[in-house]
Design brief:
Elements: H1 9-22, H2 30-49, H3 57-68, H4 76-79, H5 82-89, H6 97-107, H7 111-114
């Protein structure tokens, strides 16, 4: 086992190749230990170099609607009325704290996705 930090793309590609060879390692073996260490190093490198920004709140809502097969009318009970749903989804109105709570409790959208900043349309 010759493990070293992943400092650049070449190191990253080599680590990925090695992980591919170790995928069938048996637990509690030296190969499995190497696999776990490499996976940790790769994850750390990816977090630093390939971070994916969280969606803004409106995109998070639309994504959950798509996942659940929901339409705007399905959100009326969470937002108060049909026009408010339309205004929020079209970025004409900001989410209120009650709306955020309802979306979290009813659709299981994480608070951190609902509390992000986003711009209203003009």
């Amino acid at each position: 086992m010759n493990i070293k930090p992943i400092r650049d793309e070449k190191d990253y590609e080599l680590a990925l190749s090695r992980v591919g060879l170790l995928m069938d390692a048996k637990p509690n073996s030296r190969e499995f230990d190497e696999l776990e260490v490499l996976a940790t190093l790769i994850d750390n490198y990816e977090v630093k170099h390939y971070a994916i920004d969280a969606p803004d709140p409106i995109e998070a809502i639309k994504f959950r609607m798509e996942q659940e097969g929901l339409i705007q009318n399905d959100l009326v009970a969470l937002f108060g009325n049909k026009s408010r749903v339309s205004e929020v989804l079209n970025r004409k109105r900001k989410l209120t704290l009650d709306m955020i709570r309802n979306l979290h409790n009813q659709l299981n959208i994480p608070f951190e996705n609902l509390l992000g900043e986003y711009r209203l349309s003009k």
